[in-house]
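Notes, p. 3: input format for complexes.
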Amino acid sequence: MQHISVVGSGTMGNGIAHTFAQFGFNVALIDTQSTALQRAIKTISNNLDRQVKKEILTAADKVSTLSRIVTYTNLNEGVKKADLVVEAATENESIKLDIFRELDRLCPEHTLLASNTSSISITEIASVTQRADRVIGMHFMNPVPVMKLVEVIKGYTTSVETTNTIITLSRKLDKVPVEVNDYPGFVANRILMPMINEAIYTLYEGVADVEAIDTVMKLGMAHPMGPLELADFIGLDVCLSILRVLYEGFGNPKYAPCPLLVKMVTAGKLGKKTGAGFYKY
Ligand SMILES: NC(=O)c1ccc[n+]([C@@H]2O[C@H](COP(=O)([O-])OP(=O)(O)OC[C@H]3O[C@@H](n4cnc5c(N)ncnc54)[C@H](O)[C@@H]3O)[C@@H](O)[C@H]2O)c1
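Output follows (281 residues plus nicotinamide-adenine-dinucleotide):
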């Protein structure tokens, strides 16, 4: 494993590219939008500066990390040499299925295909390829260079060999991989999203205001961030789409997204990335 291609250069894609490059891998960072790629390189450079300031990396490490990342708007060019592709494009099932159909067609035979999806079935993603044994979930947490967890999701057809390769690789990135099976929301979001949704219902029903809800959870439960601030950080559109996957996947009304969340997403108040959500940025 030396050549890693990352598809999608948004919040997660730039962090995944940063982390692989920091640990010596050659990274092809791919996005359909060249402006997204430019923004990603700027973000990676700023985040590397922060690591240099904290003495996690040297100034020379920053230069060599950046030199290992090459950007592409053309998928074919970007995956030619890939040993592994990590897809981190928009959380939308049809976008992801199209990307995996293309990846399967374009990538060398040996290439493993991973998705960073928060909630879409790995088994379903694998089913549109001719290499279902080599498709897996590699769910990094935000911000990727900082957070230790990689939730490794085994689809119904993922081989033991693929799983073991991804576990070994995650450890090379100084991460802690945890193996889970492919059911809606996996583990992380199956537990996190109902909590965030309940916090939004608590606001919606007027039980308390935004700051009160977050303060209760921060000081009362020792959470580093309140659930509403965390929702802003993740992106309210991402939270809504994960809740819909849980709701549809389990057919259980307890996962129904709060109407306030739906309304905020419709209004374009998506959280930190749009400058406003439960808080203003
Ligand atoms: N935001 C989080 O905290 C978080 C955490 C864990 C996992 N995830 C998952 O990571 C994935 C990416 O989320 P994000 O928050 O980085 O999204 P984002 O909206 O910040 O970035 C998505 C990027 O994908 C690009 N894209 C869309 N279609 C594409 C295509 N066909 N080919 C190449 N690029 C394409 C977009 O231009 C955009 O730059 C999603 O599956 C999400 O569920 C997000």
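Residues 7-13, 30-33, 36, 88-91, 95, 99, 116-118, 139, 142, 234-235, 238 surround nicotinamide-adenine-dinucleotide (CB under 6 Å).
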